[in-house]
Amino acid sequence: MSYIVLSRRYRPKSFNEIVGQKHVVTTLVNALQSDRVAHAYLFAGPRGVGKTSMARILSKALNCQKGTTDTPCNKCATCNSITNGNDIDVLEIDGASNRGIDEIRNIRQNVGYTPAVSKHKIYIIDEVHMLTKEAFNALLKTLEEPPEHVKFIFATTSPSRVPDTVQSRCQRFDFKNISIPDISDRLAQICKTENIAAEEEVLQSIAKYARGGLRDSESILDQLASFCHEKITLRDVYDIFGVVSEEKLSGLINSFTEKNPELSIEIFHGIMESGRDIEGFIDQLLLYIRDLLLVSVCKKQRDTIETVSGDLNLLRTQSSSFSPETLMYMFQVISEAKTKTRDLLQQKIYLEVLFVKLATMEDLRPLSSVLDKIEGMKKMFDGSAVNTGKAISISKVDVATPAKPEIQVKPSQDSVVFDKKASPDISLAETWNKAMIELQTKKKTTWALLKNARVLNIDDNEAIVEVPKNYLVHKERLEKPEEKRIIDGCLEKVTGKKIHVKFIVSKNGFKVVENKSSGHGVVQEGKSKKSDDIKNEPMVKKAIEFFDGSIVNVREEKG
Ligand SMILES: [Zn+2]
């Protein structure tokens, strides 16, 4: 007797042998028990998950010589011939190789005849989406008015390509990928019956690399059993699939957390030298990162989450070293290795550079956590703000962007305060903007000369206005008494105070002015002693470092 491959020998023969499609089995068994079997079914789902097996079992259930049943006998001639795929009344058609309208016409001509032996004439059309448009149209006519004794079972891996008109006349079942534990359980049963010895993780690895396909898993087990004479090892699995060991993948990930680019490159080169396919390796690495991401974000289902990688504990430990943002970034840039180029050498170079980058970059943190951090800093500053002496405020005064953060610094102690009141600079900008609007209506040419300038400070007597250094001509004109008078008039109208405008020229963005009269001052960075002192305040240093900023403007506030 010739050898029958495992996947055929262990093909499920009855509903209770079907693995991982409980939802389909339950509905079909109920339909059989209540005699409500539809005349057409569409079985949709990935390859090797039991669609054809289900179609045959349903056919046996309908045609078993012992009568319609949810437990076909698997002994009668009809059951056997259906199992072997050569029953006279159950016709299996491969849609991929019989795409033509002729085959469907044959069906149409023959559906009228009663079945030769059994109760039903059953057409199983596999890969039905491959039929041509004309063939579908011909099929549709039969589906619209099917004879009582005819049943159709369509199977497809691509249901979206089956016309809606056909789908609407079928009862559709979506077959799922079979879970890794379900597959490895099934493989364990087979190993037991067949006396196949395998290392513990072997079956799970097979299930994993077969990506939820039971038939493929069985075929692989078959291959491994025939070339491993003793025990099947994990290494055999890696070789037969041409995959990279999980140890190597986790080692590569560890090299990123350890900030060890040399190790990253060493592991990557080792993988390439072992003759592994680079695209397969990229896929594996992406799956590994996907596992890390799931473990990191799905905290509630942490113990039940189905990961592709076997070692959940290791995944947990590793995932804690990365923020989800970093994992998503890694996923994106690694997958780009495949989309950017098909050239293998270029892919290798891309990955080398990328791995060095990943092993040297800092962990990415989400914006929300940065905001939290700022909030925390704010609290810290608030907490240390003891209400003693005068406060000096460091603020960015910019009419164009008036809502800049405001930090106030007390000079005597190392204390910095965030101003919780309405920002004075916003009111400064507001005052200035109002004056500018006033000016625009009063004398447009003056307004035009002034519109590129910006206000630095306004106190009871004086408004300090900065003119860009490439606007010196403007400054000269603005300084004419008649122009100044108009501007002063506008300021008075807005503030109710007699304020005189004073112009300064911007050198490096901002310029110093000491305003002694009011105690308010605008100080240029680096020039004033006050500014230097403040720069050296520990809390200010921290703030500058934290915001990656610089002191733009220091202003004293009345205690
Ligand atoms: Zn039977």
TrEMBL record:
<keyword id="KW-0235">DNA replication</keyword>
<keyword id="KW-0067">ATP-binding</keyword>
<dbReference type="GO" id="GO:0005524">
    <property type="term" value="F:ATP binding"/>
</dbReference>
<dbReference type="InterPro" id="IPR045085">
    <property type="entry name" value="HLD_clamp_pol_III_gamma_tau"/>
</dbReference>
<dbReference type="GO" id="GO:0003887">
    <property type="term" value="F:DNA-directed DNA polymerase activity"/>
</dbReference>
<keyword id="KW-0547">Nucleotide-binding</keyword>
<dbReference type="GO" id="GO:0046872">
    <property type="term" value="F:metal ion binding"/>
</dbReference>
<comment type="subunit">
    <text>DNA polymerase III contains a core (composed of alpha, epsilon and theta chains) that associates with a tau subunit. This core dimerizes to form the POLIII' complex. PolIII' associates with the gamma complex (composed of gamma, delta, delta', psi and chi chains) and with the beta chain to form the complete DNA polymerase III complex.</text>
</comment>
<dbReference type="InterPro" id="IPR050238">
    <property type="entry name" value="DNA_Rep/Repair_Clamp_Loader"/>
</dbReference>
<dbReference type="InterPro" id="IPR012763">
    <property type="entry name" value="DNA_pol_III_sug/sutau_N"/>
</dbReference>
<dbReference type="InterPro" id="IPR003593">
    <property type="entry name" value="AAA+_ATPase"/>
</dbReference>
<comment type="similarity">
    <text>Belongs to the DnaX/STICHEL family.</text>
</comment>
<keyword id="KW-0479">Metal-binding</keyword>
<comment type="function">
    <text>DNA polymerase III is a complex, multichain enzyme responsible for most of the replicative synthesis in bacteria. This DNA polymerase also exhibits 3' to 5' exonuclease activity.</text>
</comment>
<dbReference type="GO" id="GO:0009360">
    <property type="term" value="C:DNA polymerase III complex"/>
</dbReference>
<dbReference type="InterPro" id="IPR022754">
    <property type="entry name" value="DNA_pol_III_gamma-3"/>
</dbReference>
<dbReference type="GO" id="GO:0006261">
    <property type="term" value="P:DNA-templated DNA replication"/>
</dbReference>
<dbReference type="Pfam" id="PF12169">
    <property type="entry name" value="DNA_pol3_gamma3"/>
</dbReference>
<keyword id="KW-0239">DNA-directed DNA polymerase</keyword>
<keyword id="KW-0808">Transferase</keyword>
<keyword id="KW-0548">Nucleotidyltransferase</keyword>
<dbReference type="InterPro" id="IPR001270">
    <property type="entry name" value="ClpA/B"/>
</dbReference>
<protein>
    <recommendedName>
        <fullName>DNA polymerase III subunit gamma/tau</fullName>
        <ecNumber>2.7.7.7</ecNumber>
    </recommendedName>
</protein>
<dbReference type="InterPro" id="IPR008921">
    <property type="entry name" value="DNA_pol3_clamp-load_cplx_C"/>
</dbReference>
<dbReference type="GO" id="GO:0003677">
    <property type="term" value="F:DNA binding"/>
</dbReference>
<dbReference type="InterPro" id="IPR027417">
    <property type="entry name" value="P-loop_NTPase"/>
</dbReference>
<dbReference type="Pfam" id="PF13177">
    <property type="entry name" value="DNA_pol3_delta2"/>
</dbReference>
<keyword id="KW-0862">Zinc</keyword>
<feature type="domain" description="AAA+ ATPase">
    <location>
        <begin position="37"/>
        <end position="179"/>
    </location>
</feature>
<dbReference type="Pfam" id="PF22608">
    <property type="entry name" value="DNAX_ATPase_lid"/>
</dbReference>
